[in-house]
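From the methods appendix. Each design record in this collection lists the tokenized structure first, followed by the designed amino acid sequence. Records were kept in a plain field format so they could be parsed without special tools. The example shown here is representative of the layout used throughout.

RECORD:
FOLD TOKENS (348 positions):
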């Protein structure tokens, strides 16, 4: 029988022997360190996050350092991690913490949720993991565990289902040892109750899990309706000077790759050639060494055709707040999307 009262004791006991105990953010779990880890772990696997987290913490050890840094510096350390609004929100929140909370992350669960990028589950994780406050979390892993344990078949996302899941999450969250419980249920979802082939034989919730008992562990949660992916095509003009540096433009804050830097983009080869003819001095346009590349976003694929424009002289474009001659040998600390890094590397 599924029993909310059994979930925490079983998970806490399991965690002592099978949970993850040496993740970098588990050492000195201050609110700031937990916050940064929780934001990085949204949409990204632990194995990828570990290296990024170490670099981020070395450069920004506290909210004050983060708030004082240029956004370019923050995006630089986030380059390749994707979902860059997370980095912009972290930076903005650090500035609000400096202006409104004397430089300390608020200890109030409610006030935390007023900071950009911190929702109910993230605020709960910060309070539970850093202060042992009894707060229920409901991230993707926890949602999957609860849906299976209580055999909730309706697709997640509907308001009534979300309300029910929050109720169940709260009913399972203990008053004591909440930090261990929170880590344990996240670990269970990440390592045992995994998306496609849950390892039920190794699960501490095996006996009470309603989905397992009724053979529905593979069909819960119900797969999301398939969305037809669209493809967007752009031409990136790699303008290279004789000293090897490449022209980059800062992308608008809102939209894809907001605040990052990329080569000028055009809807067609003709538009790129027109730009080279009219805006650059003495540029020779030719196909780039790399034919094309594809980059997957959540809802669409970006098909990038690179063109190379070699400038014999200074090219006639000055550095400015929105333009930059990027020299890969002495790189500026700015944010670069992963495909742009690939393209710049292909030039050397
Ligand atoms: S018994 Fe299986 S389906 Fe149920 S919670 Fe454990 S791993 Fe998930």
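DESIGN:
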């Amino acid at each position: 029988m599924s029993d909310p009262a059994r979930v925490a004791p079983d998970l806490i006991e399991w965690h002592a022997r099978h949970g993850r105990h040496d993740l970098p953010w588990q050492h000195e779990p201050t609110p700031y360190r937990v916050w940064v880890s929780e934001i990085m772990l949204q949409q990204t696997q632990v194995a990828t996050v570990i290296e990024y987290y170490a670099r981020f913490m070395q450069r920004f050890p506290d909210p004050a350092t983060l708030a004082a840094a240029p956004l370019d510096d923050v995006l630089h350390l986030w380059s390749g991690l994707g979902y860059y609004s997370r980095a912009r929100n972290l930076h903005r929140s650090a500035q609000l913490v400096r202006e409104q909370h004397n430089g300390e992350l608020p200890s109030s669960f409610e006030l935390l949720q007023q900071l950009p990028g911190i929702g109910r589950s993230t605020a709960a994780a910060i309070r539970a993991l850093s202060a042992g406050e009894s707060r229920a979390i409901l991230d993707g892993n926890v949602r999957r565990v609860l849906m299976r344990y209580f055999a909730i078949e309706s697709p997640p996302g509907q308001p009534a289902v979300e309300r029910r899941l929050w109720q169940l999450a709260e009913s399972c969250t203990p008053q004591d040892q909440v930090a261990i419980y929170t880590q344990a249920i996240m670990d269970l979802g990440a390592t045992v109750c995994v998306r496609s082939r849950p390892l039920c034989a190794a699960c501490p919730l095996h006996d009470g899990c309603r989905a397992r008992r009724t053979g529905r562990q593979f069909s819960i949660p119900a797969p999301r309706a398939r969305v037809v992916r669209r493809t967007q095509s752009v031409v990136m003009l790699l303008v290279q000077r004789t000293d090897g540096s490449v022209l980059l433009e800062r992308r608008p804050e809102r939209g894809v790759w907001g605040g990052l830097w990329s080569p000028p983009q055009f809807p067609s080869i003709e538009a790129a050639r027109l730009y080279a003819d009219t805006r650059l001095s003495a540029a020779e346009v030719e196909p780039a060494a790399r034919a094309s590349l594809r980059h997957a976003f959540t809802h669409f694929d970006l098909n990038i055709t690179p063109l190379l424009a070699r400038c014999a002289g200074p090219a006639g474009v000055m550095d400015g707040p929105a333009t930059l001659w990027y020299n890969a040998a002495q790189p500026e600390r700015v944010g670069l999307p992963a495909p742009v890094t690939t393209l710049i590397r292909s030039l050397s």
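APPENDIX NOTE: The longest strand covers residues 300-311.
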